[in-house]
Write a structure and sequence with these properties.
The protein is an alpha/beta fold and 550 residues long. Helix content is 31%, strand content 23%. It is built from 19 helices and 22 strands. It is globular.
Length: 550
């Protein structure tokens, strides 16, 4: 399908340095480690063995070991635990970088121009595939149409995913291949956008995307390998050493395994399958063991309970403020949700549930309440996004230690759109990070890349300020929901590891854990939000191996 050049693999290989071979001391650093109580503590030296495990964390004045093989001078740089992105789509990051990216477009006209240029630059591609469009960012006030796509590419099918992945935009050639006509029904959990006379106009929401996806040629194994290499490069360049992959298919898992078998899997991946069938095919009777020196594990399953606010697929208790005829698109009925959660819990798989609207979050919190008496023990129920929660239900996050896997950059990107979708009187439980912590829940922060950039330091800045890259709005949007710096860093490190059953393996920079760390040019405990966004990463180490040096 995709004529992806092999240069992505070569480019990634070029950033990988030689592995550690014996006990190593990295000294003269301004280090931050996360103690048992969750507090950040200072240190100045780190020792790890030839397995890449930390043996000592040294403070100023501690005697340095003499029986080491290598001593490296950190030149006073700040050492941080490797950052953990608790919600990404690994393969989509890679494919997004190797196909058409519309995420930087600010108008329909600009997007159409970029699509036309991409098609002209790639005459041999049988399909034009891409992602990242956002009609809200364009100020369009409606969805784009197939006719508009036809005006720039009509000789072959075009299929472009919305920025949140919950809608797709097709041209007429793609719709003909999928046999879309005026009689094509809206599937359960999906919607075909139509003109007033009932004609499909080219946008397919949530479950309706399957109509076009069914006729898109699947990527070849070498395309997948190139996409994984590119994704790893992007993540490492952003200081991300571990991720939770939210939606791992069988083909994705095999791609990860090929990389692991060849020694090319550098990042750590906590994996969540796309379906019960994929979960059982990969894991069998339960979660897999950790593979490749703690690089890969299938933890459980990712379920979708609703769609996204941008496409009005998130399910709300009351109608959308800006489209009163809909409350969103439920993707699972309450009984289906509980059956799937039970099916996973019976075999000790972890469940991560996408819920954005307040109706979806209400349902999953109630389901956790109902199932927790039956499925006891350390379940670590996860809600992915938890963007809009009825304030009276926030306390439910604490009753069973529910993990709120949230993305700070969503708040800065969605702020004005959320105000339009909900109206001013329904925002008290919106992106409520501090309220979740105060209720006793756990925050695990991520980016949802490629929906947002895989930029952890921008995420930390947003989490502590509730402002965007321009410092807007002044004082922060609903600033009562900021978190402090320690909480933000923990949510991108130790707590993100905990959310993926990786605690004790990596995430804190303490003895016994893997030596996953960054050397950066500034201290996030001292820098302003705008300065944190500008953090420069000098080196990235994973398991005692330097995998990136700038």
């Amino acid at each position: 399908m995709l004529r992806i050049f092999s240069g992505a693999l070569a480019a990634f290989a070029a950033i990988v340095a030689s592995p550690a071979t014996a006990d190593t001391l990295v000294d003269n650093v301004d280090g931050l480690t996360i103690g048992e109580n969750g507090q950040l503590q200072r240190f100045t030296g780190l020792v790890f063995d030839d397995d890449g495990r930390i043996t000592q964390v040294l403070e100023r004045g501690d005697e340095r070991p003499t029986d080491i093989d290598f001593a490296l001078d950190g030149d006073g740089k700040v050492m941080l635990p490797g950052m953990i992105d608790a919600h990404v789509h690994v393969m989509q990051i890679g494919f997004g970088a190797l196909t058409l990216d519309l995420s930087d477009t600010t108008s329909l006209e600009g997007a159409l121009g970029k699509i036309r240029q991409f098609a002209e630059d790639n005459p041999g591609r049988p399909w034009i595939l891409g992602r990242g469009w956002n009609q809200e960012k364009w100020g369009l006030g409606r969805f784009p149409t197939a006719a508009e796509l036809d005006s720039v590419v009509s000789d072959r099918p075009v299929w472009l995913s919305r920025v949140d992945g919950h809608a797709g935009w097709a041209n007429s050639a793609a719709m003909r291949l999928a046999k879309i006509d005026n009689e094509t029904p809206d599937p359960d959990g999906g919607r075909v956008i139509r003109s007033p006379d009932g004609e499909a106009t080219g946008v397919f929401i949530d479950a309706a995307e399957s109509y076009i996806n069914a006729v898109v040629p699947a990527p070849r194994p070498k395309d997948r390998d190139a996409a994984l290499a590119m994704a790893q490069r992007i993540l490492l360049e952003n200081g991300i050493t571990a991720v939770a992959d939210m939606g791992t298919s069988i083909e994705d898992w095999q791609t990860f395994r090929r990389a692991g078998d060849l020694g090319q899997l550098k990042i750590r991946i906590m994996s969540y399958a796309t379906s019960p069938e994929a979960m059982e095919l990969i894991g069998g009777p339960g979660p897999t063991p950790w593979l490749y020196d703690d690089k890969l594990r299938l933890n459980g399953i990712k379920l979708y309970l609703d769609g996204a606010l941008g496409s009005r697929g998130a399910t709300l208790k009351e109608p959308y403020n800006d489209e009163p005829t809909t409350r969103g698109l439920p993707l699972l009925r309450p009984a289906q949700l509980r059956n799937l959660m039970s099916r996973a819990a019976l075999e000790s798989f972890q469940t991560a549930i996408h819920a954005i609207g307040d109706a979806a979050n209400s349902d999953v919190l109630l389901a956790i309440e109902e199932l927790s008496d039956t499925y006891t023990g350390d379940r670590r129920w996860r809600i992915e996004h938890a963007q809009i929660v009825d304030p009276v239900e926030l306390a439910a996050f604490g009753r069973h230690g529910v993990i709120a896997s949230m993305q700070p950059l969503h708040q800065t990107s969605d702020r004005t759109m959320a105000e339009a979708r909900l109206g001013p009187d329904r925002l008290d439980g919106a992106y409520a990070w501090r309220s979740v912590l105060n209720a006793g829940g756990t925050l695990a922060f991520g980016s949802d890349a490629p929906v947002e950039p895989a930029d952890v330091f921008a995420g930390i800045a947003a989490a502590i300020s509730r402002t965007d890259e321009n410092g807007e709005p002044f004082g922060g949007w609903r600033a009562q929901e900021t978190v402090n710096r320690e909480q933000a860093i923990r949510a991108f490190t130790a707590d993100a590891a905990f959310a993926g059953f990786a605690d004790g393996r990596f995430g804190r920079l303490v003895p016994g854990e893997r030596a996953d760390f960054l050397l950066v040019d500034r201290d996030p405990l001292l820098a302003s939000p705008s300065d944190i966004r500008e953090t420069r990463i000098h080196e990235v180490w994973i398991g005692g191996e330097r995998v990136l040096a700038n």
